[in-house]
Amino acid sequence: MVMDFLKTFASKRLSWLLLAGSAFMLELTAIYFQHVMSLQPCIMCVYERLVMVGLISAGLIGCINPKQKYIRWPSFMLWGYSALQGVSLAKTHVYVQSNYTPETHCDLVPNFPSWIPLHEWMPWMFQPTGTCAEIAWQFLGLSMPQWLVIIFSVYSITFVVFLVPQLLKR
């Protein structure tokens, strides 16, 4: 019964809008932190933002026609890839913050492909200006990357919860 609900819900636009909308709200929050609260993003923050764009894209692609498998499956794959990349990046970011030494440093220029230099096209969003080891903000005792580990883990778990019913034959 639950599996049927999850399988059916994944083929409705609302599910994909929730994915895109939640990631979009988190992206807006990051922009608010940067431009209103003056918390400068480091290169890891920029990559984490790009992962959020992947989640937004997965949701928007899934909205096109979620009843069609050829739309739903690429959306699922982008969702899963983005969520897992997000967990990995956020965990690395937490490690850098927790184990800072003078030798620990992050690049200053993002490693985007030459054909899509996001930091040049959209510097207000993708240009790193902060340092990875700095903890400039905390909420309930957790830094921003620690919250992102939780957030991306929730996206990853939700991905699995919605993927499994798709794989089961009924």
From TrEMBL:
A Pfam family that the UniProt record links to this protein: DsbB
UniProt-listed InterPro entries: DiS_bond_form_DsbB/BdbC, Disulphide_bond_form_DsbB, DsbB, DsbB-like_sf
GO biological process: protein folding
Subcellular localization: Cell inner membrane; Cell membrane
Highest rank taxon of the organism: Bacteria
Membrane topology of the entry: Multi-pass membrane protein
Periplasmic compartment spans: 33-50, 92-146
First-listed, main subcellular location of the protein, grouped into a coarse class: membrane
Gene3D superfamilies: DsbB-like (1.20.1550.10)
Gene Ontology MF: a single term: protein-disulfide reductase activity
Disulfide bridge positions per record: C42-C45, C106-C132
N-terminal signal peptide: none
Record's GO cellular component terms: plasma membrane
Membrane topology (Cytoplasmic): 1-15, 166-170
Keywords: Cell inner membrane, Cell membrane, Chaperone, Disulfide bond, Electron transport, Membrane, Oxidoreductase, Redox-active center, Transmembrane, Transmembrane helix, Transport
TM segment ranges: 46-64, 76-96, 147-168
Entries under SUPFAM superfamilies matching the protein: DsbB-like
Function according to Swiss-Prot or TrEMBL: Required for disulfide bond formation in some periplasmic proteins. Acts by oxidizing the DsbA protein.
Matching HAMAP family: DsbB
Family statement drawn from the similarity comment of this UniProt entry: Belongs to the DsbB family.
PANTHER family tied to this protein: DISULFIDE BOND FORMATION PROTEIN B
NCBIfam families listed in its UniProt record: PRK01749.1 (NF002485)
Entry protein name: Disulfide bond formation protein B
Top-level taxonomy: Bacteria, Pseudomonadati, Pseudomonadota, Gammaproteobacteria, Alteromonadales
